[in-house]
Design a protein that fits this description.
The protein has 85 residues and is mainly alpha-helical. The protein has 1 helix and no strands. It starts with a helix and ends in a 7-residue tail after the last helix.
């Protein structure tokens, strides 16, 4: 075999190896893209749950504050001096 044929064969082999690597990397890329999609979906679900949780907590805090104010008013009324009753 002459040098040109050997070089051509080596280059053909290298091209084949690179094509195989490209196929493997493409498959890995698709797998990672699917995983990213799954994670985005999970993140969206968690964000929605967090918003619902924050809304519920805000309502609970508001209700607790109302009850606390009511208790404070009741305590102030009960602390009136003996002669003011």
């Amino acid at each position: 075999m002459n040098k040109r044929m050997k070089k051509k064969q080596m280059l053909g082999q290298k091209i084949h190896e690179l094509e195989c690597e490209l196929v493997v990397l493409s498959a890995e890329n698709m797998h990672l893209m699917n995983k990213v999609g799954d994670l985005k979906s999970e993140l969206n679900t968690l964000n929605q749950a967090l918003k619902r949780h924050e809304e519920i907590c805000a309502k609970n805090v508001e209700q607790t504050n109302k009850e606390f104010e009511s208790i404070k008013k009741e305590l102030k009324r009960s602390k009136k001096s003996f002669f003011k009753r």
